[in-house]
Amino acid sequence: MAFNNFRILQHPVLGEKKNGKEVRIFLDGLPIHAVEGEPIAAALYAAGVRITRLSPHKKEPRGAFCMIGRCTECCMIVDGEPNVRTCRTMVRDGMRVETPRGWME
Amino acid sequence: MQGKTGSESWQEVWDKSVNGPRALIDCWQEIPCDPCQEACAQGSIVLSSGICAPPALHAETCNGCGKCVAICPGMAIFLVDRSIGSGLARVTVPYEMRDEIRLGGEAWAVDGEGNYLAEGRITRVSGAGRPGRTMLLTIEVPEEWALKVRGVRGRRKLLEEPEEVEAIEAVEDFAFCRCEEIDYSRLREIITQGEFRSLPALRRFSRAGLGYCQGRFCQSILRSQFLADCPEEDREVESFRVRAPVRPVKLSRLGGEDG
């Protein structure tokens, strides 16, 4: 899963993509390329990942919604810590991100 | 509303613009905002009575530098230059898109609502090399449009036939409380069956607004739906306490062990 097809390279407000150190994070064990200084949600988005969790009760797929840390739709398990807002948490090399799959039965 | 405050000073701008570019201020918002006054090295832009007053221009001292055009967050300042004569005027507008606008190219001058005014030629593009910064485009149009131009659109885009926009059908259902997974239809069901008299009771029963975000997204919909569906004489409590969102914190963090 090393492709970067959805990375935003040019943006009318943000400008050009800034070059940063390449790091690697793991989504459910799969390696994903990320750039230092970007949130986890951005790295997942760039890698084409749209589902960040399954909802607790109905186990419906959910994805990052507000991108500013309010809605908690992007909460994932980061390095074993549950309910981490991935849009507000920056990547770190070797970070392990897991997809929550609803309440355990 | 547009042009409300400017119309008196616009005559002056119109008169002086035969000598070179002058700033045309189309700002009627009485909001605390003064970057134009700060940006003007000539001291030609003055907020007469406090920071909420709309700016006024002294066309006599304005040298048409365009700093105010680039800095106005509301994109409400323009330059008008009639010095080229022969019935033409050059209007400079702020531009923040990245499309096919090119120097020397044909473009359409539009008004504040995007309606076509006139065809013109782009005679100047400044600031294009700096992403994230406002560009200034100068378009040459017949003089009669000089005070009305508020924007520029690439000609190619407009020449395409506008797509038929189908009427959007009424949204039947949507995720109303994202945290507690309540759909809008479910909320209506609860309201009609429950005959709730108090908003907190409805909130506790439906659980809308009691999840992670504590109603950041749903509380206004919940309240307006309650007010819409519950007859006024039956209502007992119409408000609820708004609480901060839930942010789990590890005990070890509180104990100073990490983070």
UniProtKB/TrEMBL annotation, chain A:
Protein known as: (2Fe-2S)-binding protein
Statement: the UniProt record of this protein carries the keyword Oxidoreductase: yes
InterPro entries named in the record: 2Fe-2S-bd_N (IPR042204), 2Fe-2S_ferredoxin-like_sf (IPR036010)
Source taxon at top rank: Bacteria
GO molecular-function term, one example from the UniProt record: oxidoreductase activity
SUPFAM superfamilies in UniProt: 2Fe-2S ferredoxin-like (SSF54292)
UniProt keyword list: Oxidoreductase
